[in-house]
């Protein structure tokens, strides 16, 4: 039997995995520091087109309903996406990202799904469905969209209705005439509860009572919230969403939901039945749909061979903005933990690029 041909790996200094906000920010700063796209570093993105996770968001999510889309470094969002807040976020943001990639010549390779990253001594081997890459270091910016989280509950496999996650949502009209159970206490849960409750019957359940934030959320409060999340990842604890610290904003939409009774929250059920859910006291509720707005987890499975996690399940992070993995300083995680927000992703990309080029002796 002939020996299989060995595939050569393209050698680079840095591989950036993911081309969302954090990945593009990282690439911009790498280039600004003197590294050449395609020669010194490469950006791999599994999506078929620019836009990161934004291209998959539901159609009713417009620029007026998102928290905020922050400018990427060096190029303003409004200059390329306009100021019409009725435009779908799934259209405007990808348009902006595409213009950004082209403007700075970032040469993103896509679709390129990274399957695994392995340690090869002085270098890291990045295996993708578009080829092999040998890198001295990586910046991982894969975000969370590819890893939706649905908690395990007894009886889930017996439910005869429809089970969905936030990422499956398209339109509230799809649920007309159905009783929808919405699970989760984050901003996405509130947004979808708002829309669905206007067209059909809903019940809202959360693990803990929702924390509402009255008044403006200023920069000082934002920094304090991010600092609390950063403290966790520096200690090797799994990151929590920033909203778990900041609380939910009381918007005009929330006030309208209160008036029509859509925010009458129930505690979490203890099990799922064939027809719906049951609480510990025996109370049952029949529903047609269970919509899990329970968030996402960081998509890091491809990094498993590097054994970055601690026994706690988290990864000890270090560096100026907690982007560097303590166990392996060749690896930076951006868009992870405190840098999961769009503005945090920008700052993390800059920090990771500077620290990594310095570590590798590439800084000009």
Could you name the key traits of this structure?
five-stranded parallel sheet; six-stranded mixed sheet; single chain; 8 helices; 18 strands; alpha/beta
Question: Could you describe the largest sheet, including whether it forms a barrel?
Answer: 6 strands, mixed
Task: Indicate the percent of residues in helices.
Answer: 10-25%
Order of helices and strands: EHEHHEEEEEHEEHHEHEEEEEEEEH
The total count of strands amounts to: 18
The N- and C-terminal alpha carbons lie at a distance of 50 Å
Strand content: 15-25%
**Which regions contain 5 or more consecutive residues with pLDDT less than 50?**
1-6
The secondary structure category is alpha/beta
C-alpha Rg, in Å? 22 Å
Oligomeric status:
single chain
Q: How many distinct helices?
A: 8
Could you report the average pLDDT, rounded to the nearest whole number? 90
Large-scale geometry:
globular
């Amino acid at each position: 039997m002939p020996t299989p041909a060995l595939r050569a790996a393209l050698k680079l200094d840095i591989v950036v995995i993911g081309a969302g906000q954090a990945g593009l920010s990282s690439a911009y700063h790498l280039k600004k520091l003197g590294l050449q796209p395609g020669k010194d570093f490469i950006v791999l993105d599994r999506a078929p087109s620019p836009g990161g996770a934004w291209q998959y968001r539901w159609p009713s999510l417009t620029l007026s309903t998102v928290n905020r889309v922050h400018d990427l470094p060096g190029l303003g969002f409004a200059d390329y996406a306009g100021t019409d807040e009725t435009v779908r976020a799934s259209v405007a943001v990808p348009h902006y990202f595409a213009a950004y990639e082209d403007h700075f010549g970032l040469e993103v390779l896509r679709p390129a799904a990274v399957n695994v990253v392995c340690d090869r001594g002085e270098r890291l081997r990045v295996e993708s469905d578009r080829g092999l890459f040998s890198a001295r270091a990586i910046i991982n910016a894969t975000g969370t969209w590819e890893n939706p989280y649905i908690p395990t509950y007894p009886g889930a496999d017996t439910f005869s209705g429809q089970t969905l996650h936030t990422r499956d949502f398209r339109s509230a009209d799809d649920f007309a005439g159905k009783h929808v159970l919405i699970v989760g206490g984050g901003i996405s849960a509130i947004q979808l509860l708002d829309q669905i409750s206007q067209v059909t019957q809903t019940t809202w359940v959360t693990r803990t009572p929702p924390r509402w934030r009255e008044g403006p959320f200023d920069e000082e409060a934002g920094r304090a919230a991010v600092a609390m999340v950063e403290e966790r990842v520096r200690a090797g604890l799994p990151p929590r969403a920033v909203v778990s610290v900041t609380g939910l904003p009381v918007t005009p939409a929330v006030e309208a939901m209160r008036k029509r009774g859509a925010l009458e929250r129930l505690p979490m059920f203890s099990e799922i039945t064939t027809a719906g859910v049951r609480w510990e006291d025996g109370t049952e509720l029949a529903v047609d749909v269970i919509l899990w707005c329970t968030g996402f987890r960081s998509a890091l499975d491809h990094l498993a061979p590097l054994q970055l996690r601690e026994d706690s399940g988290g990864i000890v992070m270090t560096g100026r903005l907690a982007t560097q993995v303590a166990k392996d300083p060749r690896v930076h995680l951006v868009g992870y933990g405190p840098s999961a927000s769009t503005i945090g992703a920008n700052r993390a990309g800059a920090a990771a690029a500077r620290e990594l080029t310095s570590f590798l002796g590439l800084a000009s």
